[in-house]
TrEMBL record:
Matching CDD domains: M48A_Zmpste24p_like
Family: Belongs to the peptidase M48 family.
Protein name: Ste24 endopeptidase
UniProt domain Peptidase M48: residue ranges: 204-409
Gene Ontology MF term list: metal ion binding; metalloendopeptidase activity
Provenance organism: Prosthecochloris aestuarii (strain DSM 271 / SK 413)
Domain spans labelled CAAX prenyl protease 1 N-terminal: 32-201
């Protein structure tokens, strides 16, 4: 194993151990007892159920993570990458088609390996705790739709990426960056009206007390509402959510039907105020810019390591290629990606606090957001007291208890 192999192996093993440690300390920390803020929201039975849900998901995460790592290492050291490369080259196609076949085989293998875990999570864990509403037929249809989208959208994008690095010379990374950035923006614009409705039904919110309250609030903060939609989230899960998506004329505020069923009008407006806060504070724009910059850095570094003989030797592959370079580079990049994910999650948690503050200070009943967060925590069996180290590694949102205390300080 050469230096690249050592770096990749060490990173994979270290991050796995780090996550195991985080899971263990998180489990020990979670049993501290029900916080005072949730007394009257969680009874003893509900709190104990949330603890069992946490333990079950943690065990599942560690087992599935360990299995994935073991499969990758076995596949790697048994020469799996080289074997697949030999097979796809044997078809005698162009380098672009060969690359698509290479990725297709790897993705198919990964999907088949992960399928039992996906089925167990949905139809055993989520079912046991009363969350799952997905039927086998819905799961199959969703999977087929995802495959079709992956082939029709991902295939051409991957082919273009391979072409850029194959034929456009030293500035290939710049062309690839520009192309992927344009495609990402196009997808952001088109997803709300063309892609998301393939999986969920978006129904305009009916006239009534809720819509009137939302419109009044939106007008008070100068937010141009293009559409408020209800999503049939109850088809797949009893968990509730709300989100803001798209931009320009395609931007949408979406409320899960489960959210509407479980919350009062004031709580729903407070949740929407939080989502509007993200827009007003330009969090979506900041995320898009950061993602674009990160993509540019990735493509530049990829161009530096393209067709690197030592990298191919680390994976026991004889012939260099653009398509295999993509796979091997992203494994080599994993330490940077891991550290970057921590930084981006810290920024995301900061944005969540800012959106909470915006909602609490612009909506007349800012305290309604606290009530909404408490109900959401109960209905989703959230871990109310996660360990700070676990939060540091994994949370894109601040722990709900921290959010509630900050909002209470603002509104009291």
């Amino acid at each position: 194993m050469n230096v690249f192999g050592v770096i990749i192996f060490s990173t994979l093993f270290f991050t796995f151990l780090l996550r195991i440690v985080a899971n263990v300390v998180n489990l020990r920390f979670a049993g501290a007892g029900l916080p005072d803020e949730f007394k009257g929201v969680f009874d003893g039975k509900a709190y104990e159920k949330s603890q069992r849900y946490l333990r079950k998901n943690t065990a599942f995460s560690m087992v599935s993570g360990g299995f994935d790592l073991a499969v990758l290492l076995i596949f790697w050291f048994s020469g799996g990458f080289g074997a697949i490369d030999t097979v796809v080259r044997g078809f005698g196609q162009s380098s672009i088609v060969t690359g698509l076949l290479f990725f297709g085989v790897l993705l198919l293998f990964q999907s088949l390996i992960s399928l039992p875990f996906t089925l167990y999570r949905i139809f055993v864990i989520e079912e046991k705790f009363g969350f799952n509403k997905t039927t086998p037929s819905t799961f199959i249809v969703d999977t087929l739709k995802s495959v079709v989208l992956g082939v029709t959208l991902g295939g051409p994008v991957l082919a273009a990426l391979l072409w850029f690095f194959e034929y456009t010379g030293a500035m290939a990374w710049l062309w690839a960056w520009a192309g992927i950035t344009f495609f990402s923006l196009l997808l952001q614009y088109a997803a709300p009206s063309l892609i998301m409705p393939l999986f969920n039904r978006f129904t305009p919110l009916e006239d009534g007390e809720l819509k009137s309250a939302i419109m009044r609030y939106a007008k008070s903060v100068g937010f141009p509402l293009e559409g408020i939609y209800v999503i049939d989230g109850s088809r797949r899960s009893s968990k509730a959510n709300a989100f803001f998506t798209g931009f320009g004329r395609q931007k949408r505020i979406a409320l899960f039907d489960t959210l509407i069923e479980q919350h009062s009008v004031e709580e729903l407006v407070a949740v929407l105020a939080h989502e509007i806060g993200h827009y007003k504070k330009k969090h979506i724009l900041i995320s898009m810019v950061l993602n674009a910059l990160n993509t540019g850095v990735i493509f530049f570094l990829l161009s530096v390591f393209m067709n690197n003989r030592l990298l191919f030797d680390a994976f026991y592959v004889q012939e260099t290629s653009v398509y295999a370079s993509l796979v091997f580079f992203f494994l080599l990049y994993s330490p940077i990606e891991f550290l970057l994910s921590i930084v981006l999650q810290m920024l995301s948690r900061k944005h969540e606090f800012e959106a909470d503050y915006y909602a609490a200070t612009t909506y007349s009943n800012g305290g309604a957001l606290v009530d909404a967060l408490k109900k959401l925590s109960r209905s989703s069996l959230s871990n109310l007291t996660p360990h700070p180290f676990y939060v540091f590694l994994n949370y894109s949102h601040p722990p709900v208890l921290e959010r509630i205390r900050r909002i209470t300080n603002v509104t009291s």
